Amino acid sequence: MLEWFSHRDTQLFSDFHIRWPSLTKIKRTKESTVRAFFNQRGGNAVSLLEQRILSINNAIPLTEDEAVVQSHELLITVLAQQFQTVIVAIKSFDSAIYELFNTMSDAPIFKSLPAT
Predict the structure, then answer these.
(1) What are the residues whose beta carbons fall under 8 Å from the beta carbon of 97, sequence distance 6 or more?
(2) What is the DSSP letter of 114?
(3) In which domain, by residue range, is 36 found?
(4) Which top-level group of life is the source organism from (predicted)?
(5) Is residue 116 part of a domain?
(6) HSE of 51 in the Cβ direction (CA atoms, 13 Å)?
């Protein structure tokens, strides 16, 4: 499931894993529901949709042992929820840094440099 996402540090990635924490759950879902999920997010989520749908349809679970599957469903859900909190925190830090940076007297010098 990880290869379906080029950026694993996104809200899309964590939303997907909270909604479908296992391959079994995503494979039981109607294709139209999966399409709607990605279409609502736009951008690359839409452009990679066909590739993801094909990969989901062809995917084979590593195990069907319910103890393993259920415990890992819980783990991925909790980790994805924690990750969402981290994403929000990073955005807050980025915003604060941007605001502070712009108040500094030498900000124009740094802004003029390439790749800034």
Answers:
(1) none
(2) T
(3) 2-111
(4) Bacteria
(5) no
(6) 10
> In terms of C-beta density within 10 A (0-12 exposed, 13-18 middle, 19 or more buried), how is residue 40 classed?
exposed
Report the domain count for the chain: 1
Q: What is the pTM of this model?
A: 0.78
Residue 64 amino acid letter: E
Give the whole-angstrom CA distance, residue 58 versus residue 62.
13
Please tell me the number of Cα atoms within 13 Å of 57 on its side-chain side: 9
For residue 68, being part of any structural domain is answered with yes
Give the span between the Cα atoms of 34 and 39, in whole angstroms. Answer: 9
pLDDT in tens, 37-95: 999 988 777 888 899 999 999 999 999 999 999 999 999 999 999 999 999 999 999 99
The CA distance from 65 to 56, in Å, is 20
